[in-house]
Design a protein that fits this description.
Order of helices and strands: EHEHEEEEHEEHHH
Largest sheet: 6 strands, mixed
Bound molecules: zinc ion
Shape: elongated
Length: about 180
């Protein structure tokens, strides 16, 4: 149902029948999302639960949860960053020809004769939920911190402390070599 093209009548039928579904979707099925995520990680997926029902205006609507298991790219260090989020969504549909009703409720998605693909809509929900500049919570979690702190203009003292374990290590290695 998620991948099929649905027309307004199909949405109406599914909503009248109170269709429910629960499905795990691989991220590679969502081309726009694929451009954002860290594509080296093949296990990226989202789990979608969806219920269709008629709303108060007897128009179709869909609601549910999207659980993401995605590897995004940290905007500070460009390293992988697990993004596990639960996105709640609720979308009302309306027939495009029904102009009067669409003026009353701007939150509706109007369905033209072209129909829609539900997965495209849910992909929109995911894309709008991803923070614009997603980063590791703490700079210590970032990759290549030493290189980064140079960019960020950290004090020499901090850099010196960071480098110390490595100088200790090279001393030890030097002794082992002898
Ligand atoms: Zn980072």
């Amino acid at each position: 149902m998620l991948h099929q093209k649905l027309f307004f009548k199909d949405l109406l039928d599914h909503s009248s029948g109170k269709s429910r579904l629960s499905q795990k979707i691989e991220a590679k099925m969502m081309p726009r999302l694929l451009q954002i995520i860290n594509q080296d990680d093949p296990v990226d997926s989202v789990s979608i639960s969806a219920s269709l029902r008629l709303n108060d205006q007897l128009n179709p609507s869909i609601y549910g949860e999207i659980k993401t298991d995605l590897s995004l790219r940290c905007q500070r260090c460009l390293g992988p960053l697990e993004w596990n989020e639960t996105i709640e969504y609720s979308i009302d549909f309306i027939r495009q020809s029904d102009t009067q009703a669409s003026q009353e409720n701007m939150d509706c998605i109007s369905i033209s004769d072209e129909g829609i693909v539900l997965l495209d809509l849910l992909e929109d929900e995911i894309l709008t939920s991803i923070p614009m500049s997603i980063m590791h919570k703490n700079i210590e979690l970032c990759e290549n911190i030493d290189k980064l702190s140079m960019f960020l203009g950290s004090s020499d003292e901090k850099t010196a402390n960071k480098n110390k374990p490595f100088s200790d290590l090279s001393e030890i290695m030097g002794k082992d070599g002898n």
